[in-house]
TrEMBL record:
Residues 321-423 form the GOLD domain. It comes from Arachis hypogaea (Peanut). It comes from the Eukaryota. This is GOLD domain-containing protein. SUPFAM superfamilies: Supernatant protein factor (SPF), C-terminal domain.
Length: 434
């Protein structure tokens, strides 16, 4: 577990000073030029043949502003790239173009295939970027968690959650869901991940019992995951710095998609012209090059970005501490017991204790028993003497468990024990009500 002593979460002001070191080299002027030219020939198509209802919705989207959030723009680029790849796939070409009845259309077919391959490569690049970034954030959070079963539970919960999310996507695809519907679901799932991160930070929902019960989950970490995506939080500075070039690229790929959508439907009356194909070819080339350049740049920024900084740098020191320990005295020749009721198998019984030492270092016996409904006792954790211990036990059956601090071997010395114990139920997905 990495130490967070003396650290506080990054602030927007500090992130601004960090981003000063990473100015993004401006996009090529070709991005705005080609976006305008592609949109112009789309408007020409619309003047010849008014849009249908589906096209009107796409035009409205193209006329609007891209999403504000960086990650939502990433998902939108994925969606638009995949929609464009779909249009460039030969089975989805207009019937007249599929026939390749002229030498020019044979040439066009080769170029369209090359554009599809180029966009597919960029799609894979983007998917890899998103996966690595997600893993980086999760692993950073895990680095600052105690390296015990809490981390294991969080990983298990995340893996289970991701399997469930993938099953949702698979079910939608198998039922004939569209690309747009699939990405609407993927974005909803991304918002679910954010909600779960916020739950971890505020110790609510599925994470409530996991983070509240024992020493070791740093408050600075909980503060970080709770506030990182606030509307005016640290990530807003990222949107301010790097949003504009990304917004331009989002608009560009949407313009490319819109042009192909309009052209394919009108292909019987309007053939693909050589100059239009040349413009499309240049636009795809510039978009893929500039978008991949942006992804490489932002990957470096993310990889080096701090999550925590010293309190002195931030100008504030969080002195609050979470102290839920109890302190008891175990007289010489006596024991002290705590009884926990466990409702579910695979729950965790967890403890953390230490002796308040005087001039002489002392220890105390500790063991864990299971009590059956009939009163029979089963030793689950053998007796051993400790000065301090932090541990956990995964239950195999529901019932009562007794934690015992044993000072019967001592004739003269009482022991002062500072402890915290709890029973943690199995981590499961929260059930959302309509």
């Amino acid at each position: 577990m990495a130490s967070t002593e003396g650290l506080v979460p990054i602030t927007r002001a500090y992130l601004a000073s960090y981003y000063d070191k990473y100015p993004f080299p401006p996009l090529s002027d070709d991005v705005s030029r080609l976006s305008s030219e592609i949109r112009s020939i789309s408007n020409d198509l619309l003047r010849q043949h008014p849009p249908n209802q589906g096209e009107s919705m796409l035009i409205k989207e193209a006329d609007g502003q891209p999403p504000h959030k960086i990650d939502e723009n990433m998902w939108k680029n994925r969606e638009y790239i995949e929609e464009t790849i779909f249009l460039l796939d030969k089975p989805n070409w207009p019937e007249a173009l599929k026939q390749q009845s002229s030498p020019s259309e044979v040439e066009y077919a080769v170029i369209l295939g090359q554009l599809k391959d180029k966009l597919y490569s960029t799609l894979k690049f983007l998917e890899s970027f998103q996966a690595k970034n997600s893993e980086h954030v999760f692993n950073t959070v895990m680095t600052y968690l105690p390296q015990d079963f809490r981390g294991t539970l969080l990983r298990q919960q995340r893996e289970r959650s991701e399997r469930n999310k993938q099953a949702e996507v698979d079910a939608l695809v198998n039922s004939g869901g569209s690309i747009q519907e699939r990405y609407a679901l993927l974005w909803k799932q991304q918002m679910d991940r954010r909600r779960q991160l916020a739950q971890l930070g505020s110790a609510t929902g599925v994470y409530k019992t996991l983070v509240k019960y024992l020493v070791g989950v740093p408050q600075v970490l909980l503060d970080f995951v709770r506030q990182i995506n606030d509307d005016d939080g640290p990530m807003e500075e990222q949107r301010h710095r790097y949003g504009p070039p990304l917004y331009s690229l989002t608009s560009m790929i949407l313009s490319i998609r819109l042009f192909l959508s309009l052209l394919w439907i009108r292909y019987g009356a309007t053939k693909l012209k050589r100059e239009q194909l040349a413009l499309l070819e240049e636009a795809v080339e510039v978009y893929t090059r500039e978008f991949e350049r942006f992804l490489k740049f932002i990957s470096e920024v993310f990889a080096n970005a701090p999550f925590f900084i010293s309190a002195e740098v931030a100008g504030a020191l969080d002195a609050s501490k979470n102290d839920d320990y109890k302190e008891i005295t175990v007289p010489a020749g006596k024991t002290y017991e705590v009884l926990l009721s466990v409702d579910s198998v695979n729950s965790y019984i967890a403890w953390d204790f230490s002796l308040v030492q005087g001039k002489i270092n002392m220890d105390i016996g500790f063991s864990l028993e299971f009590l059956s409904p009939s009163g029979d006792k089963t030793l689950m954790l053998p007796y051993r003497r400790y000065e301090s211990d932090q541990g956990n036990f995964c239950t195999l059956m529901g019932g009562s468990y007794k934690l015992i601090w044993d000072n019967t071997y001592s004739t003269f010395f009482r022991k002062v024990v500072r402890y915290k114990v709890d029973c943690i139920p199995p981590v499961t997905e929260p059930v959302e009500s309509d």
